[in-house]
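Sample entry (327 residues):
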Amino acid sequence: MSEAPTISQGGYQPPDPIEVPPLYAWPPRPIATLRWIFTGLLFPWGFLFIALAVVSWNYLAPSLDRMASLELEWIVLIWLRNAALLGLVAGGLHCWLYRYRAQDQAYMLNTRWLETDNRKFLFRNQVRDNIFWSLASGCTVWSCYEALTMWAYANDHIPRVEWSDAPIYLAAMTIGVFFWSTFHFYLNHRLLHWRPLYRTAHKLHHRNIDIGPWSGISMHPLEHVIYFTVFFLWWVVPVHPVLVILTGFYQGISPAVSHSGFHKLILGGRTKVTAGDYFHHVHHKYFEVNYGNTPSPVDKLFGSWHDGTPQAHAALKHRRLARHRRG
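Predicted structure, serialized as tokens:
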């Protein structure tokens, strides 16, 4: 079905239901799966993060010899690199979509712009609030996890693999980063919706009902500590340090894209690039559905999958009404 950037009262809605990727189809659909991996999962943003990770490891990371000792100087360098790249992506998207409004409301998932005078946000400004939490807390916790992992590599405390020794394995693990990150996200996100943790930490992120690029990792410090435990897998599963950097980029920078608030970017007046994650947008809108991401469709197993259609929302309202009557 073709789609056009039409705006309804509540914002743009993709014309087709959100479906489970063909990777999980039975009987298997190998051609569709490969097409989805390379044109859906990885293109264009996944390839961008892989390229940034390779460049960062070769040109923007301290040497392993230097990282053998935990020193503030090189840890700050990692923070500066991560903050700069996050700022480049989140700031670039924000300027294009919200400051200059280069495509107005075409493909905008809601019809309200970000808040500029609301006391629930620091500085009464949603964007400034989101930037503060993303850089001061998010980038700091992310960089500390990365630095600790690199220090462990440098001292042979955890196993690592060189590309020359196992190129096929590491290529597979590169794609595996995206599946591990999305599976881990479901686990930690579901935990954060446990009422005590929600009230303590996660509600800060959920103040962003209408989301923007800087909303991606605008979180409470406790949530950041939980969210970036994604690095822990590489403490027991051997990979190359470039995949550790990629893990940080996908966990730390890709939410700027998925939270952009626009389903697609329109570049050059004609080229359309996939941007905001409608699946996660539905979570911010309805709260108790879509805790994970589509590449690892755990929500489907536990009945919290919302495919974005009016029928799915009607079913959600029915469940809420039934729960209210029981309680």
